[in-house]
Predict the 3D structure of the following.
Amino acid sequence: MFHAKTKEQTIKDLNTNAELGLTEKETTKCQKEFGKNKLSEAKPPQAIFIFLKQFSNFFTIILLVAAALSLILKEHFDFVVILAAVSFNLVIGFIQEFKAAKTIYGLKKMVFITAKVLREGRVHKILAEDLVPGDIIFVDAGDKVPADARLLESLDLHTREAILTGEATPSKKKADKIFPEKTPLADRENMIYMGTFCLSGKAKATVTACGPNSEMGKIASLALKTKEKQTPLETKMKSLSLEIAFLTFAAILLILFGGVIRGIALSEMFLTAIALAVAVIPEGLLVTVVIVLTLGMRRILERKALVRELLAAETLGSTTVICTDKTGTITSGEMRVEQILTADRVFNVKDFKNTKDPALMKIFQVGLLCNDVYVENDEGENENRWKFLGDPTETALFYAAGKADLKKRNFEKNYKLLDEIPFDSYLKYMAVAQKNLENGQIEFFVKGSCERILDFSSHFFEKSEIKEFTRFNQKEKFLELNSQLSQKAYRVLACGYKILGKIPKNLDMKKETTVGLVFLGLVAIRDPVRTSVKEAIKTCEEAGIRVKMITGDHKATAKVIGQEVGINAAENEILSGEDLDFLPPAELGSKICQAKIFARVAPKHKLQIVEALQEKKEIVAMTGDGVNDTPALKAANIGIAMGQGSEAARETSNMILLNNNFKTIEAAVEEGRIIFDNIRKVTLYLLLYTFAKVILIGGALLFNFALPLLPVQILWMNIIEDGLPDFALAFEKKEKGIMKEKPKNISEQILNPVSKIIIFLVGLPAAILLFAVYFYLVNKGFDENYLRSLVFITLALTSVITVYSCKSLRTSICHRSVFTNRFLNIAVITSIFLLILAIYLPGLQTILKTMPLGIFEWLFAFAFAALNILAIEIIKKIFNKPKIQMSNIK
């Protein structure tokens, strides 16, 4: 903890020399002891092992068995479809595994920089990876800090540490201060850290930690150790596949046993059992799930978010908690002038371009000429593309002046800089003396704290006139405004100026700028809240999703921003990183769940928050853009990175926001819910009449009847049912009110209570009823081929037509237009056409052993289908009533 030690103690503990640096011998010894100044690297597993691991997935094993059975039957179409499903599954798993190996590469890019180092009394420029603890380094404005270091000397040094702390405000560094050992990282002003950026000033420092031991290295190690959570869809698909496998093999064994007892040839029963297995196992399900996910990813991309993994797209819809970084997500991540207050008016951003108020123009002049920022390309009209180098607060003044079409280079043509007082935290102001080349006068431009500039001012600007401060309450008015702005988390600067008729022989800047100023007004600067964020957070809350804000800022600032966007937190609902460190383990989980805002947090705290929420069975989405966010992004069920964030954050995340806007998260959650809805519809449709075939064949064996369906007919039905309508369901559009519902419970399966009730109260009774008709007609002496053809078209047609009832599990078929999904209509028409061919095309009649049927048989099939649709709609009507608590239905 070198921030708690003096410079002398640090030099002594590191066994270095502040004037000469380390020797070559000492450097070699240190490198052997500490290694290179590089982040920890995980050895990526070989691709072949990642690939083979995918075969351990139980659903994959079932599909491979089904593929083998199809090949035995020489049903090449089914064989190809099943292999396609397996291939998709393997690709998804492979990509997910391979992503973990990429995580560290983004972090490594942070340290491929050079460093200026003092060794044996001479300054050298070396690769940052060759630094060792004890090295004396130099940093200047524009440099990336090459390693963690304790400052020895600093001159107006400001660094941007958002990549580590998440705080947008620049950190002012002071070499001479000492801080308590438990001081949070963001408040250690005598330290600089690897990967952060020097905005202004210069410094001399001694390296205290390199590579894995640096703060950046600790985050890298934490990210490597953090395990990715299995997505809810993976868990639910695994559970579903186990249920299907158990029921399938149990049914097949019963049918084989029954057939052998009845004296049917074992070879014939074996072929029947294989056909049933292929029919019962919904090999089209995984392919359709992939299609649903892919379409969802495409829609999410259209709404400005890139989902990096298929399975992550569905998880978005299950999200129950969003832990959002403040800087860069809720706010823009850049300091901007939001208001300028003069004695008689308040100017908002939209007013900057539309007014030529003298006081406002003078404030912009002070902001440009009393400013150390360098701008590379302010010739363009789009201020968003200007490149600035310097303090973000001063950059905000440049940006605001640009809104009023004012640029520093235009002023510099008429002014010459004579002298300057740089900003100092003790003086609390900055001043410049500029000679006006047009009239020869000297003008002083001053900016700083409100209290200090008011102390220096004898006059103020009001209604285009310069007036004298004659009453004390005139200054009190500005002090009150300053207080109000500070309470709203603004950084407030006051501006003033002074004009001398001629240049004095001995220019005393301090004397001239501390008396007789004309007070111009206050400039309110902060990292602005993004438009539409408040509305998006409200929508999330209506959808049952809790939004928790995480920031490196202080509690007071975080609370104000939270209130502005609708996260209204009481004092006991705001926790700091220090609070998390000292909370008893027994209380930690409940306190984290209760809290709405987390302030002054470190990377370990973000990970702690995510894991605590997951222990409470929450599905957590975590946003972030810095290296400090990578462990939490990886641990979260959904890691969401900013498009303009660090490479490490993007590589670790599941989704990237291309516009860095919280509103996009809300849109992605909606799409995730649509994805899960469509997966549920497809699953219900595929399983609705799956076991009807088992009941029909099992019943025939029980009563010693001829089989009502032949293996080849079952396989043709499989093509009609699984081949087209289920794929078309993937294209279903969203249903109304989807974002008014609560998130799915983590334990809720793909087949929810309504789906299971439909299967058992519609699918099974329908199969029993159809067998009863078959039983009756057999006893009446009807021909076997006729009966099989009737059962064949009735079951196939019912399955195809009832797909329309599966378009929505919430609303009636009458309230869901059949024209919302043209792909489904095409699929149904095509399936019916294939069914007609099977009955009337001579060649297929021979293969499928069917025979032509009359109008009566078709009317019976349509009536049977209509009866099933009616039953489904009644069940939906009953069990979707608000009074019914579906969670209580087992």
User: Anything to note?
Assistant: Confidence is low (pLDDT under 50) at residues 100-112, 882-890. The chain has 34 helices and 26 strands. The longest strand covers residues 148-160.
